[in-house]
Structures are given as structure tokens and as C-alpha cells.
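Worked problem 6 (solution included).
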Amino acid sequence: MMKDFYTLSKVIRQRRSIFPEQFSGEQIDDELIELLLENANWAPNHKHTEPWRFHIYTGVALEQLGCQLAECYKSFIPPEQFRQQKYDKTIKKAQLSSHVILINMHREPGKEKVPEWEDLAAVSCAVQNLWLTTQTLGIGGYWSSPAYLPNVVPALQLPATEQCWGFFYLGIPKKEVKNTSRRKAIIDKITWNR
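Solution. The predicted structure is:
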């Protein structure tokens, strides 16, 4: 029992955001992407709504996605705040990735079984499962949630029953990537009531 605890604790504590500029350019097998999403599918969710939906982009579709997301940014931002560097970076992030997964939440209008926040929490749990699985497989990734997300569903002609909550960029990390992180002590974040 404790062996499983220590293994799980190590995976949780070593999980890091790995960004596209830290990817090696090596392609991830589609079979591994399916393994990631199978684990995501086992996230907890109230009333078995299973609200997560994933749209996977790779190859030529990935290049098109980068351009479409850059246009979403451009249409969202007021012209005086537009930055060409951010536009170009949006395209480049997709080009540097092996796969990008759109993280969507499905809700059937008028047929919602639970409050929206519960479905969003379930989607977040699914992403955490996905993220922890990347750690065990040596895959790098990060969840991006830019301000222009509301523009994505119509721009990409996604189902109207879905809301986009971000993009998960995936790639094989370069060998020299050593992201570190720290947390403040848990004792400062808990209150015991006895």
C-alpha cells in the first residue's frame, strides 16, 4: 500500500508545465495520446455526466489550428492592444507541438444534470489525470487558457453544446529541460476542527 502511495506522490510532485519552446520536435505516437485520454476519461464526475470533450490536432491540422488561434486572438483584442509578437507566438506554439488537445466541456442546454461549476470541476480533474499521465510517459505539456477562449468554439466550428476551456500543448521535452517548482508549506493552508 505505501509503495503505491510513494509512487503516486512522486508523480504528483514531479508534474511540471513543459512549454512548446522546451519540446524537442519529436512526434508522439497517437497511441500514447489515446492512453493519456483514456486516463482522463476516468476522472470523477457528479451524476456520471462525463462532460469532457477532447479535440486532437496534429500534422497539417495542427498548423491550421495555430493560424486559427492567432486569428481568434486578433479578433478578440482591441486593435490598439494587438501585439504582432503574441500573434506570431500563438502560431509558433502550435508548430512546435506534436499534438494540441482542445479541452472542452459538453453541456446539453435544458438537460443539465448538475450545476456548471461541477462539470467544470470534472473537466479539470480529467485534465489533471491527463497531466499526471504525461509525467509517467516522459511527455511534456501544459494547459493554456487565453482570454480569447469564447471566440474559439465558433471560429473552429465546434459543437454549440461545448465550451472551450483551453488548449493542452504536448511534445517530447528536450533532454536538458529541468523545470523546478516549490509549494508553500501545507500547514499554512489547513485548519483543523476537532
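Discussion: The longest strand covers residues 162-171.
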